[in-house]
Amino acid sequence: MSPHRSLSILADIGGTNTRVALAQGTEVLADSVARYSNADYKARGGDIADILSDYLRARGQAVTGVCVAAAGPVQDGVATMTNLDWVIDADKLRAATGATRVALLNDLQAQGQALGHISADKLRCVVPGPAASGAMLVVGLGTGVNAAPVHGSGAARVVPPSECGHVNMPVRSEEDFALMRFVEAMLAARGEVAHCGVEEVLSGRGLGNLYAFATQDPASTATSAEIFKALAEGEAKATHAAALYTRILAQTLADLALVHLPYGGIYLIGGMARAMTPYFAPLHLGAVFRETRRVDLLEKDFSITVVEDDFAALTGCAAYLAAQD
Asked: Where does 98-189 have alpha helices with state H?
């Protein structure tokens, strides 16, 4: 069997669960996907090495490659998962799997590596734009928020690390200014850093912050799931929160588009992106994104697409490994 057809093991480590799968070349084997509770392994003093070992032992499989996507910063080949107290490096992955090819990616980088390998039925265009080649932009909207440009393809693909979820929330109106101060006060009252970055309004908890602002109740404990239920029922305050979310997202994407010029398209990933998709059109995501500025790029370029593939990070891991051969 050629190296591209040999088996690799992949893992996508989230805040709650780790997804593990096998791949042949760039193809993730759908029937091999399994989920493991991070809390269960942490409680036993285990980590990703134990998850990978248990998976391979249960399947009786041998692999030649391993790639892990970690929801945390990767620096000098080491990922540190602060919430899990897990430190991951190549030696740990190699020892756990016996693989000779080892790679460790940030989860957003893995999503960027997946672009071009995701089936068309898992891509939903929400703001049309001209088909063009060039850089792409991957934007994660879920438990956290992050974005990174995607350059090149195959072994030449580069997805630089980023922490842009903590850039300042765009403030374009008196309501935006009031929202920023409201969120800062909420964070300070919780003993957190009183900085209103875009993650504080575009993540899952961010929608909760927007709902608290819409209701003018800083003590609100409404979850994103509860807010989406209220939104589906037409509740006015939930609709207000979703409208704020959509407008702030559109303005943030517009700023990022002018920084990175993603002529190949903007791709939204994560649970919040998928949950908000039905509301983007009625709440005017495209109209706000395509505002008039001194340059006319936003008016005519850059499509926006939602990735509806739960396993995109695994696909990105497989594509990255295959491209290294």
From this structure: 107-114, 174-189
Q: How many domains does the chain have?
A: 2
CA distances from 52 to 72, 111, 135, 323 (A): 19, 21, 34, 22
Instruction: Specify the pairing of strand 74-75 against strand 78-81.
Output: antiparallel
Beta bridge partners of 124: 306
CA gap 50, 95 in Å, rounded: 10
Q: What is the pLDDT of residue 82?
A: 65
Tens-digit pLDDT profile for residues 108-154: 999 999 999 999 999 999 999 998 899 999 999 998 899 999 999 88
Domain span including residue 44: 3-118+310-324
- Are residues 314 and 257 part of one domain? no
Instruction: State how far the Cα of 211 lies from the Cα of 224, in Å rounded to an integer.
Output: 9
Instruction: Check which CATH number belongs to the domain holding 226 and give it.
Output: 3.40.367.20
Q: What percentage of the chain reaches a pLDDT higher than 90?
A: 86
The encoded tokens of residue 99 equal: 């693989």
Is the Cβ–Cβ distance between 185 and 218 less than 8 Å? yes
Choose among 13, 260, 253: nearest CA to 134.
260
* Shared domain check, 112 and 135: no
- Alpha-carbon radius of gyration of the chain: 20
Whether 145 contacts 268, CB under 8 Å: no
pLDDT digits (tens, 9 = 90+) for 172-224: 999 999 999 999 999 999 999 999 999 999 999 999 999 999 999 999 999 99
pTM: 0.92
pLDDT at residue 4 in the model? 44
Percent of the chain with pLDDT over 70: 98
How many C-beta atoms surround the C-beta of residue 1 within 10 A?
8
Contact between 175 and 240 under an 8 Å Cβ cutoff? The reply is no
CA separation for the pair 285, 79 (Å, rounded): 35
